[in-house]
Amino acid sequence: MPTKVEGVTDVEWGLNNSPEGKNKDYTHAVMMTFADEAGRQNYLPHPEHDALKEVFRPLLKDVIVFDYEV
Asked: Region Disordered: what ranges (predicted)?
């Protein structure tokens, strides 16, 4: 995604491997890092984001979105 959408600097993903059992049935996580707020605002309506939604929504039971600044 960083090569396709201006403002996206990194994408990481993985499977839950916590031994605590507090994942509430969530099994996967994706973390996307943006250069700044403008990068996030560029990504949200971007066709590449829409393409990801088309692929993954049918496969997912539920989604949580959690944004924060560092």
From this structure: 1-22
Ordered by where they begin, the domains of the chain are 8-59 (3.30.70.100)
pTM of the model: 0.84
pLDDT tens per residue, range 42-51: 999 999 999 9
Q: What's the CA gap between 16 and 68, in Å, rounded?
A: 20
CA dihedral 42, 46, 49, 53 (to 10 degrees): 130
Closest CA to 56 of 16, 23, 2, 13: 13
Cβ 60 vs Cβ 22: under 8 Å: no
- Supply angle C-alpha 54, 39, 12, rounded to 5: 60
